[in-house]
Every structure is written in structure tokens, then in C-alpha cells.
Amino acid sequence: MSPLRRAALLRLARLAAWPLAGLPTLARADGVQRGRVLAFPRDHGAHPETRTEWWYATGWLGPTEQPTHGFQVTFFRSRTGLAQANASRFAARQLLFAHAAVTVLGADSRAGQPGQPGLHLHEQRIARWSGDPAAALGAAQLDGGAVTLQGWSLRDTGSAWQAQVQGRDLALNLRLARTQPLLLQGEAGYSRKGPEAGQASHYVSEPQLATRGSLGVQGRSVPADAGRAWMDHEWSDDYLHPQAVGWDWIGINLFDGSALTAFVLRRADGSALWAGGSWRRSGQAAQAFGPEAVRFSPGRRWRSPSSAANYPVEWTVATPAGHFALRALMDAQELDGRGSTGTVYWEGLSELLDAQGRRVGLGYLEMTGYAGRLVMG
Questions:
Q1: CA 333 to the chain's CA centroid
Q2: What is the 3-state secondary structure (H, E, C) of 222-240?
Q3: C-alpha–C-alpha distance, residues 261 and 288, integer Å
Q4: What is the DSSP string of 314-359?
Q5: Angle at CA of residue 47, ends 44 and 50, nearest 5°
Q6: Which of 123, 248, 366, 370 has CA 20 to 30 A from 15's CA?
């Protein structure tokens, strides 16, 4: 655990205070289990018995093949192991974090020449959560998808997710409308994350979300008349193998309606410890990838001037669905989360190219563990 995150936990734990009557009990037993049947909309909600959970929306705005902006909204929940016997509404039994980011692409990036300068804005939030679904500063609904934190929110409305963020330099008010069925990753939503059976998550994706709304960039309003998004919801008790330092992950919406997920968990020497993912054509069943079937090969790198982390911003990704090139549409899309989750990572809008070099999809690339070993929970 990073010193900054440890300090944040200790500060919040000291705020755990007066016992209060009438708090709801968290009676669900929702640990990660192979064969467990996920039920929706209930399982869009929080699973506070598990150690780590996140709701994660990424996407682009603008014409289908010529995006003008990228965006990310992520809510995290972490069970601290602190103050479990304290009934106070202020007890820091859980922490909620939120990250929001907007990438404003330069003209060259929009035209298909990645790596050119643009603008990347990032803001974050953190608050304790006792487990009360009605808590004021931040809360997560238990029987449906709704998570809020200091005025930011991500809510399941039935036909769509609604994301609302109002920060200092960025604002998002976006409707992410469902166009396809849920994509249950792995075995019906049970996704292995390592060689040991306990290293797994429940993992649900929602690709090809039709996106509309509005965007605010440094006080300037930008209409979002069209776009595409990807939603992930994942929860776990034991996500990372002790040898894993981080991961590389992509969630790509292809222009033909297909969806590609691929990830690799890395050791300190860069070798793959575990891998996985899926491929789903529009209207067809998903094909899950085994750990031996996915390979990420790094290409051009970009060194962050703030963290000195050296990120591969171009990749060759080999999967059973094909071999692709992946390129970041802007190099400088690093997020400094040390004020909340304690993690510095790279998260950015990227393009997927086929064997002929044609842009066939857009989505997000996430890279963790390059600015230091990732610690979860």
C-alpha cells in the first residue's frame, strides 16, 4: 500500500465516531464464486462483502471514425477491514473513490496520426462509506446500479447508464444507452485473473453503448451529439497474484458492432503471468479467450515527464479473433490517482488497426504497474 493511500485510510479511520442506531445491515453474501448465477439489475449494484469493486465507463465523442474527445468515469469501492464493529454512520468500513478524465484530441490525432499534442484533464474524489445506501457524501446502492460520491454519480436507469460529473476543469452529463445484451466475461461472468483458483472476479461488460449528452472543458460547453462507450463492472476478493505488478487491458468497440476485450497481467520482468479476454460479434455469443491465447507485444513507448513511467503507447495484440495493432491517439493520458486510490496509471483513448492498417475500432487502453507496483485493497 502506498504511503499516501495508507495516510488517507488512517485519516478516515480516525473519523469513525459515534454509534448510531437504525443502520441497514449488509446481509448479502456475494463473494466471488464459480458457477454463481448473476442476476440483473440486482448485480449492477454494490457487493460490499468483497474486497474491491469498480464501475468503469469509457468512450469517445464525435463522428464514429473521427472522435473529438475521449472520456473516462470510474467509481471504486474498497473494503478497508477497519471499524467493522462500529455502527457509526461515519465509520470507514468502506472507501469510495472516483476518477473522471477528458481527452481533447488534436486535429492530427482525429485524422489518424496518433501521439500528437492535445489536452488531458483529470479529477478525483474520495470519501468513507459506512455501508449505508443513503449516506450523504458517497454511497452505492445494493440492489441496483447507482453509485454517488460528493455530487458525482453513475446510475443505471434501465435502458442506459447516466453519468454526471461536475469538477473544477471538466464536466460530464452523458447518457450511455444499451444497444446490445450484457457481455458476461469468462465463464458466465466468472473471470480468472491468475493461476490460482481464488484469483478471480465477477466481471460484466456492456459494449457499444450509444452516447449523447454534454461535456464541459475548462468552462466551455461542448455538445455531445454522438459517441460510443464501454461499461465494465467488476468485483473481487483476490485479484492480483503476488508476482503480478500490474496489467495491460483493452476494451474496444469495433465499427461493425463487435466487441474485443483483452488483458495481460505482468510480472516485474514484463513477462505475462496470466491473460484473457473475449470476442463477440454483434448478435452472436461471446468467445472467451484462455490465458495462452492472448499476447501483448509492446512497441513505441512514451515516458511521462511527471512520474518518469515508461509506457508502451503502441502494441501488437494477438488473440483468437485476429492480430491487431493498437495505438494511443494521444501519448499524454496518464492519471495521477495518488490523491485517492494511491495509484498512477495510464488510461487513454486508442485506435485498433487491422492487418491492412485500417482503423476498425476505438476504445480504451489501461496500463497499470509502470509507475510502481500496483497494490489493490
A1: 14
A2: EEECCEEEEEEEEEEEECC
A3: 9
A4: EEEEEETTEEEEEEES-S--EEEETTTTSEEEEEEEEEEE-TTS-E
A5: 140
A6: 123
Residues 306-315: pLDDT tens digits? 999 999 999 9
DSSP assignment, residue 98?
Answer: E
Task: For residue 8, give the 3-state DSSP assignment.
Answer: helix
H helix intervals, the chain? 3-14, 107-110
Q: Name, in order, each residue with C-beta under 8 angstroms of 202's C-beta and a sequence gap of 6 or more.
A: 32, 36, 38, 43, 47, 189, 190, 191, 234, 235, 236
Q: How many residues does the chain have?
A: 377
- Which residue, among 88, 92, 91, has the nearest Cα to 21 in the 3D structure? 88
| Half-sphere exposure for 322 (CA within 13 Å, toward CB) | 16
Q: Which grid coordinates belong to 222?
A: 461542448
Closest CA to 287 of 296, 276, 295: 276
Q: Which amino acid is at 302?
A: W
Q: What residues contact residue 217 under an 8 Å CB cut-off, 6+ apart?
A: 69, 102, 104, 119, 121, 169, 170
Find, among 377, 347, 376, 375, the residue nearest to 363 by Cα: 347
Full set of structural domains in the chain with CATH: 3-17+40-367 (2.40.370.10)
Cβ distance 349 to 362 under 8 Å? Answer: yes
Give strand pairing partners of 241: none
CA nearest 239: which of 10, 2, 20, 50?
A: 50
